[in-house]
Design goal:
It is a single chain. It is built from 15 helices and 14 strands. The chain has 419 residues and is of the alpha+beta class. A three-stranded antiparallel sheet has the order 1-3-2. α3 runs antiparallel to α4 and α8 crosses α15.
Length: 419
């Protein structure tokens, strides 16, 4: 599973290898210790054969790997991902270059063509306004709007028209999957997680037969995910203070987030919006009565993804799943929309910054507040600035830590470093 994830051909289309090297150059870091062509490109791209041509396509690690404290961690959500640009703007230049170099009827162009169509589809409809938040949910919606639910065949004209509105989300860590009954914060994606993984291939998927081939490999990838462990906190821990924080956490937080250590338990709690009161827009997006949602749920539940053995189930009941907290120190910013920069701010809602920015330097970490160092801003001036006043970007709710004393918060924070 690890080998297939890092170097496998689950993508079916991409940029010709020589064009990729010509544009982006070689990357000799080889963080995944791959061989051959893959040793010379970034970890979040994979070289593969498509239509007799050697191409390069983005892989799952574009969103599911990151560095923190200069440690590269596979499975950590990419807290610096840049989805603020319209990637369709790259398409005309790429298409011209590939046509001029290889010809528009060449194997290389045919191997690139579906990737090109995918870029055109998602580009204008999946842009975030801030670095670090993810639009994977909207990317999926756009891609399935172009694919038949049973054959998965691509149609250039979408079956349903979608707005350009993007509700942001944070990317959960892969090592948490082994505890979860549903993949996503909204409790979508139940039963067969493996079918959800195929969604990563929809950008460039060739056909249904390729989907079935990928599906056969997915249990191995899930086994790899289940082998991942949360990264250990790399700084000093005050063990005495952590011991003080454990019972406070278990009394205040464990009913939703579970217990840890010997005889640990995780309740998989789907918490209602009127209880947690965090930004409701992502949840509301899937519970509102709309033609888009009717299409979305029908596509997943009654098409190939939901009707095969061990079919996937998409069901929206409202609210958010309280996630497990293994390795929580590494997963800043916090909440389902990455709106809170530190755990200290999670535990004290009155101190949360309304508009804030960070450097996006992976070592710019605050060990006292547990999360990213940040600067309070008065207005949003660039994509590094997070404005909680924007739709879907709110930082309210989850006020359960407000009743703690400052010393109790520090003790809980110290305990969370041990998870």
């Amino acid at each position: 599973g690890k080998e297939y994830l890092f170097s496998g051909d689950y993508m079916s289309s991409g940029i010709p290898y020589n064009v990729y090297i010509g544009v982006y150059g070689q990357d000799n870091a080889n963080l995944l210790a791959r061989s051959g062509d893959n040793a010379l490109i970034k970890y979040d791209y994979t070289a593969l054969n498509a239509n007799g041509a050697r191409v390069v396509a983005p892989n799952c690690l574009s969103c599911h790997a990151a560095k923190i404290n200069n440690q590269f961690i596979v499975g950590l959500g990419n807290h610096s991902v840049d989805l603020t640009i319209n990637r369709a703007l790259l398409e005309p230049l790429l298409t011209l270059g590939i046509s001029n170099n290889y010809g528009s009827s060449s194997p290389e162009f045919e191997a690139y063509d579906q990737f090109r169509k995918g870029l055109i589809a998602i580009g204008p409809k999946t842009q975030t306004v801030t670095l670090g938040v993810n639009s994977a949910n909207k990317i999926t919606e756009v891609l399935i709007s172009h694919r038949d639910k049973n054959t998965l065949a691509w149609n250039d004209v979408p079956y349903i028209s979608l707005s350009n509105e993007v509700i942001p989300a944070d990317v959960p860590a892969w090592w948490l999957l082994k505890k979860k009954n549903a993949m996503f914060y909204t409790a979508l994606g139940r039963n067969d997680f493996c079918k959800s993984f195929i969604g990563a291939a929809l950008l460039s998927l060739k056909n249904l037969e390729k989907a079935k081939e990928i599906d056969e490999k997915m249990p191995d990838i899930l086994a790899y995910f289940n082998s991942l462990e949360a990264p250990k906190y790399p700084f000093d821990i005050n063990n005495s203070l952590a011991d003080t924080g454990k019972p406070i956490f278990e009394n205040k937080c464990s009913s939703c987030h579970g217990t840890y250590g010997a005889n640990s338990q995780y309740p998989n709690s789907l918490v209602a919006l009127n209880t947690v009161k965090t930004d409701p827009e992502l949840s509301n997006h899937y519970t509102e009565n709309s033609p888009e949602n009717e299409y979305f749920f029908d596509w997943f539940n009654t098409g190939y993804m939901g009707t095969q053995p061990n079919g996937l189930q998409y069901k929206a009941e409202g609210g958010y799943v309280a996630p497990p907290l293994d390795g929580v120190w590494a997963t800043a910013p916090y909440f389902h929309n990455a709106s809170v920069p530190t755990i200290m701010d999670v535990l004290n809602s009155k101190n949360r910054p309304a508009i804030w920015s960070r450097t996006f330097i992976n070592t710019d970490y605050n060990t006292t507040k547990v999360g990213w160092n940040y600067t309070i801003e008065t207005a949003k001036s660039n994509t590094k600035t997070y404005d909680t006043n924007l739709k879907g970007y709110g930082n309210g709710g989850h006020t359960f830590g407000d009743s703690l004393t400052e010393q109790e918060r520090l003790a809980v924070l110290e305990y969370l470093k041990t998870l």
